[in-house]
Amino acid sequence: MIHIWLINITIAMISIVIAGLIAFELFQVRKYSKTRLTIALSFLGSILVLEELVIFSAFMMWSSYDNPMYAYPSMAIATLSLLGLIILYYILRI
């Protein structure tokens, strides 16, 4: 079960980095255009980083349990979150 926990933590840490990159891109857009939309997007980028930090801390909290009932749904959440962040970052970079 420790392997699944390590995979979840690794995926969560990668997600935090990608969420930070997304927030950075949104703040770069805000430098060029200070509209209400870019301010709102920058705020959402910050919330995205906070969300990933909460997911990371939630995964660390169940590390003492060996119950697969907690491990596999957490891995699914981490994987789907990472895929969503990668797609969002790809869209922002285009």
Termini, distance in Å?
39 Å
Structural class: mainly alpha
What is the number of strand segments? Answer: 0
Q: N-to-C SSE series?
A: HHH
| Alpha carbon gyration radius | 15 Å
Taken from the alpha-carbon principal axes, the silhouette is: elongated
The overall number of domains is: 1
What value does the average pLDDT take? 85
Oligomeric grouping of the chains:
single chain
**What's the main sheet like?**
none
Q: How would you describe this structure to a colleague?
A:
The chain has 94 residues and is an all-alpha fold. The chain has one domain. The protein has 3 helices and no strands. The protein has helices at 2-32, 36-61, 68-93. The protein is elongated, with a radius of gyration of 15 Å. The termini are far apart. The mean pLDDT is 85. The chain crosses the membrane at residues 6-27, 39-63, 69-92. Keywords: Membrane, Transmembrane, Transmembrane helix.
Q: Secondary structure elements and their pairing?
A:
Blueprint: H1 2-32, H2 36-61, H3 68-93
Helix pairs in contact: 1-2, 1-3
